[in-house]
Amino acid sequence: MKSYEVNFDGLVGPTHNYGGLSYGNVASQSNSQQSSNPKEAALQGLAKMKALMDMGFQQGVLAPQERPDVAALRRLGFGGTDAEVIERAAKDAMPLLVASCSASSMWVANAATVSPSADTADGRVHFTAANLNCKYHRSIEHPTTSRVLGAMFADQKHFAHHAALPAVAQFGDEGAANHTRFCREYGEAGVEFFVFGRSAFDNRYPAPQKYPARQTLEASQAVARLHGLKDDGVVYAQQSPSVIDQGVFHNDVIAVGNGEVLFYHEDAFLETEQMLAELQSKLAKVGGKFQSICVPRSAVTVEDAVRSYLFNSQLLSRPDGSMLLIVPEECHGNERVWQYLQGLTSSGGLIREVKVFDLKQSMQNGGGPACLRLRVALNETELAAVNQGVIMTAPLYGTLTEWVNKHYRDRMTENDLADPQLLLECRTALDELTQILKLGAVYPFQIN
Predict the structure, then answer these.
(1) How many structural domains compose the chain?
(2) Catalytic residue (one of 101, 134, 183, 371)
(3) pTM greater than 0.85 (yes/no)
(4) Angle between helices 394-407 and 38-54 (to 10 degrees)
(5) Which of 55, 276, 283, 412 qualifies as a FRET site for 12, CA 20 to 30 Å off?
């Protein structure tokens, strides 16, 4: 039976704005308060989805969240009609309104951790929504994320869904941004690679001093238990605290893996040699041959990696066994990074081609190609059981493009977030979107 890695890309939401909400994310903070273009952002994301589909890769779409999140503002003490809630928040606590309007759910690499059926004890694909509790504006996402994933992967015979971990610092969970899976074939048993920034209960692990470590070891271990993973099929590794303090807020900013290959920066991890040996040993037990590509700091500095998002790329397997790297335009604009990539692809190694995409709207807010997609390994039967309304096709691309052009603004500033009309625009758009994607009622305004 054939198996596939399906990339479900996050559709950028109608309130895409540069709120500068993510401390530790250099791009997010440096572009704070600039004017954004939600329409362009959504169309750039859709263009990437369409391009990958046209190249023969399985592609899906994951719906955005309802924003502003009026219910979240009500929990913080703002009352009255929906319009009055927004008006009072804008007057008395503008930062809270900005947080409630964040479109960061577009980066669905943070939405959940996914384990394919070949790895799990019960033979189902398991999903655990990430609690994202390190940042308030993201911590409010997981209830809707769970409903959307439940509507996409509804067949309980094939799919199992777990609630987010307890929303406390000790179990900080950032989803697939700190999770990679290695395997020989997508439908075969593999090794799941969990990267953490700190331990909540064991002070033997060093912690960063400047920026927060968002993923804990304990959260990764809990997800592995929930998914029924075997000890021989799991490797835990600590991200280097020093690179976190340089703006590497997730592992997918400094490393990316796919199939049997890990592409990583020399300074990405602590205990690198031990980690590589464990990955090699455990993958060999299930018939795989682990391979790694280390980018030396002499060729690309951590600063270069953060500014270009070299590692926040998509590493995709082609039928001939070679790999394709999807990178943002910023890699082409960085002389050292582009020189390294030209040498990499001309060497006849594993990565044979690099394709560049313009994702400036996402990049300016701190997310690149890898942030925009949640990877789900599925066999043919499981793929057929997915809600087919979310699988990208040429007609769906056309419909979604028309939908964006109809509903999205082409300019968004902080002052625009205080406009109650924006909430009505978003709800109208999302209500139509749930019909397009055949999701049913997944948003609070549709349920309450």
Answers:
(1) 1
(2) 371
(3) yes
(4) 180
(5) 55
